[in-house]
Write a structure and sequence with these properties.
single chain, 104 residues, alpha+beta, 4-stranded antiparallel sheet, two-stranded parallel sheet
Amino acid sequence: MIIYGDLIDEETRCLHYQGEKDVIALKCYACRRYYPCYHCHDKYETHAYAAYPVYLRADKVVFCGVCKEELRIADYRAGGSSCFSCHADFNPNCRLHESIYFLE
C-alpha cells in the first residue's frame, strides 16, 4: 500500500501528526490516495481534500499503520478509538476531524 505525504515512519505518522497514536491514513474521495492527514494531501495534490461519502460503507478508506489493514468506515467507527483488526490505539482526537474525512 502506498501512503503519500510527509511520512516520518512506517506507521503513517507525518510531520503534522507525530503522536504515539497517530497511526492511520485516510483515503481522499477525489484522488483515491491514502494520506496521513489532509495537510499532507493538500500540499501534494492540485485539488482540496475531498471527504469520503459515508453511504459508501463497503469501501475501504482507513489504513491502520500498525497492522497495515484497510478498514471500511463502519469498521473504523465500530472500533471506537482503536483498530477494528489489531486493536492498536488510535488518536481519539481524530474523531474531532471526522467531518473533514467523512461526508455524512
